[in-house]
Every structure is written in C-alpha cells, then in structure tokens.
Design brief:
With about 220 residues, this protein is α+β, with helices and mostly antiparallel strands. Helices cover about 55% and strands about 10% of the residues. It is built from seven helices and four strands, in the order βαβββαααααα. Helix 1 packs across helix 5, helix 4 packs across helix 6 and helix 5 packs parallel to helix 7. The radius of gyration is 17 Å and the shape is globular. The termini are far apart. The structure holds glutathione. Glutathione (GSH) binds next to helix 2.
Amino acid sequence: MTIKLYGAALSPFVRKTRVALALKGIEYESVHVDPTSLPEGYEKISPMKRIPALEVDGQFLADSAAICAWAEKINPEPALYPTDAMELGRTVWFERFVDYDLAMRCTFAVFRNRVVMRLIGKECDEEKVQHALETTIPPLFEYLDGELKGREFLVGDSMTIADIALASQLVNFRHGGESVDAGKYPHLAAHVQHMHALEPFAKTIEKESGFVQKVLGNQ
Ligand SMILES: N[C@@H](CCC(=O)N[C@@H](CS)C(=O)NCC(=O)O)C(=O)O
C-alpha cells in the first residue's frame, strides 16, 4: 500500500492525523502542502482545498476525521474509537466539537492572529484574540473541564481520537502564547498537560515551538 499524507506543520488537523497514524504504526510519505499556495489540481485530492488529505494507492480522502476513521480500520490497534455505542457517539461528538467549535476560537482566532498573520507578514488583530480569550473560549473550556472531572480521558478509560483532537488544537493555543488556566479549569489543564507530555505530541511540540519562536522573534 502506498500512502501519502498531504499537509503542513502547525496545522492542528494535520498534527491530529499524524499522531493517530504514528500511534497505529501506519507509515506514509509526507507531502508538504501549504494551504496559502496550493499545488495545481489539489481540488482533486481535497475538494474543499484543505489539509490534511490522504492518498492511498491513487484514492483520496479529505478531512482529518475521515483519515483517522480509515486508519482505525486499517490498523485497529490501539483502538482510538470505542466499541460501545454511546461511547462511540460521544467520541464522535467531542471530535466534532473540538475540530469545529473549539478550533474556531483557539486556532482560528488566537493562533491564526498571533502566529500565522505574522508568518505571512500581516498584523495580528489583538482585539479578536482578546474577544476569544475573554468571551468565546471560557464557556467551551468550562464545558470540557466539567466533562473531564474525575476522568483521565474524555470518553471511557483509554485515549480516543477525541483526546487527540483536543490536545492537538491546544498545541496551537500554546503556540499562540496561551495556556489553559489550571486555577479555573483544573481538569482540562491536567488533561492537556498529560497529553502534551506523551509521544508523539512531546517531540512534535518541541520541534514546532522552535519554529514558532523564530517566527515571533523575527518581528
Ligand atoms: N475539518 C477539517 C479542517 C481542515 C482545515 O481547516 N485545514 C486548514 C489548515 S489548518 C486549511 O486547509 N485551510 C485552508 C482553507 O480552508 O482554505 C479537518 O479536520 O481536516
């Protein structure tokens, strides 16, 4: 099987996919695709022209959720999706909540302004960042904190794709110079600390942080 993963470093969705593939021991070739300057014909690979996308023997899959679901079937161990019906439903819900609602605020408001804008030579809209930090992020963190109370993982007793998706978005929050306040959200802060210390997150964060610091230091 020839597998190619199209994407770029710093994308939380690409990182999520890479972590899942690494945990499952699925090997692939990394193809760098910058979403701001896509290769010609990329819409054939990803109809909405987003990263990540996967190519398997000439067939394509777009979206991190689709790629991770594929990986689960290709290599079921370690299981990242529960077998119990309600637990599976809750895992899919948290993955979606994190990839859309949390991403909108932590990645597309905070990280994009603080890091990506600078990377492309534009101004950071700090007002947007502050609005996210003060208004739109707190209710989501509160919800996640409540869900993690007394638990190591979001669903069941082992790591699922929901934990990986959450930890991946919070890497971008961290690159944006922010962290989860352990005083306000102790359970969420403990979860992120635990997840970010695990491989392959730890090494990835170290590598990416060096790059982000360089970008920010060059301003
Ligand atoms: N739901 C998608 C989101 C992917 C996504 O938004 N990727 C960003 C990079 S972080 C992208 O490609 N943006 C370019 C665009 O939307 O035009 C997934 O989970 O893969």
